[in-house]
């Protein structure tokens, strides 16, 4: 993992630190929330509730005109070309349709590889089982009351606590808070890509299993889970839950690669030993297995588009660098402004 510059001073604001920690926990779980989008639709009970997500048409015959967003790399080895694509697991409605360059790459591919194919019914079933509440997840009455209050404020039914653990539910609320600014996991590009891949008749595979991903993402002890819930609730109660998420979403939507590449400088997520250990577990320790899986697919004679969260793409332990070490020629595809043509860098 890259070390932070010695002159990078982290903000001292407690609320902002809590916000960063909440975002880290949110990021750990968001892909599962994409799969649970239908279950998390707004139960609007007042005019103050954000509107429920509206379906976005993915007519594959009409794709190809949308603006390119996110981050992309071309990888070549053995006379075949594959692509890496960095996603964002939450988005605005008009970001949901894949851009022309990405669609072209999928059309030219044999396999679409995602972190998890959220449209696979078996994946959904296994995710639900993995995220389900356990007896050891029970909260004290005071903390549960705070959690229920935020669930209601997010226009969600209290019954979600019967579907997912309190820790999972608390980080779900960070995503739900962002809906008031127009961001929704229902519009995530990951889900759209799965629809496009299946619609084009491509093989759609998962790079990770639900069990392995959730096992890596859960807090290790009840005390850690309780602390995570308390910090997330504090960020929601103080209104500090969404600014960092909004910035990350804009970085992705505008393909601001330099800003993404220096994520550690502004994420407020590397200031303590525990935060650095968390980032290592979430990114560095997962990337080698994904790189091996992508390499295996490509080496089997397949042309692959591998689309995973954008933070898996940066630094010396990011997928582009890991695949370069496996003998791939790696070139970043720089997305041009709408109306222009993407070019390779």
Automatic annotation (TrEMBL):
<feature type="signal peptide">
    <location>
        <begin position="1"/>
        <end position="44"/>
    </location>
</feature>
<dbReference type="InterPro" id="IPR002816">
    <property type="entry name" value="TraB/PrgY/GumN_fam"/>
</dbReference>
<dbReference type="Pfam" id="PF01963">
    <property type="entry name" value="TraB_PrgY_gumN"/>
</dbReference>
<protein>
    <submittedName>
        <fullName>TraB/GumN family protein</fullName>
    </submittedName>
</protein>
<dbReference type="InterPro" id="IPR047111">
    <property type="entry name" value="YbaP-like"/>
</dbReference>
<keyword id="KW-0732">Signal</keyword>
């Amino acid at each position: 993992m890259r070390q932070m510059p010695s002159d990078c001073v982290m903000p001292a604001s407690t609320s902002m630190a809590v916000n960063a920690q909440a975002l880290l926990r949110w990021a750990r779980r968001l892909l599962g929330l994409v799969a649970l989008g239908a279950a998390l639709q707004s139960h609007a009970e007042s005019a103050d509730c954000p509107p429920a997500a509206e379906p976005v048409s993915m007519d594959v015959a009409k794709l190809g005109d949308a603006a390119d967003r996110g981050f992309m790399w071309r990888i070549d080895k053995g006379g075949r070309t594959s692509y890496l694509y960095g996603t964002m697991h939450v988005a605005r409605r008009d970001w949901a349709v894949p851009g022309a360059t990405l669609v072209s790459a999928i059309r030219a591919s044999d396999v679409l590889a995602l972190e998890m194919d959220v449209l696979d019914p078996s994946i959904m079933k296994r995710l639900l089982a993995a995220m389900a509440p356990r007896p050891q997840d029970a909260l004290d009455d005071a903390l549960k009351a705070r959690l229920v209050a935020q669930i209601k404020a997010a226009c969600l039914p209290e019954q979600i606590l019967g579907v997912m653990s309190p820790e999972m539910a608390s980080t779900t609320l960070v995503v739900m808070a962002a809906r008031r600014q127009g961001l929704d996991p229902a519009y995530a590009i990951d889900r759209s890509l799965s629809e496009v891949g299946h619609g084009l008749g491509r093989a759609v595979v998962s790079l990770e299993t639900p069990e392995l991903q959730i096992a890596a993402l859960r807090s290790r002890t009840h005390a850690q889970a309780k602390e995570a819930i308390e910090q997330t609730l504090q960020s929601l109660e103080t209104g500090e839950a969404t600014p960092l998420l909004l910035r990350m979403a804009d970085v992705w939507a505008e393909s601001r690669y330099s800003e993404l590449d220096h994520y550690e400088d502004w994420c407020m997520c590397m200031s303590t030993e525990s935060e650095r250990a968390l980032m290592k577990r979430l990114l560095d320790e997962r990337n080698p297995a994904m790189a091996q899986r992508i390499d295996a697919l490509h080496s089997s004679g397949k042309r692959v588009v591998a689309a995973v969260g954008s933070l898996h793409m940066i630094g010396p332990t990011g997928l582009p660098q890991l695949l370069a070490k496996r003998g791939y020629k790696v070139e970043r595809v720089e997305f041009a402004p709408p109306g222009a043509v993407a070019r390779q860098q």
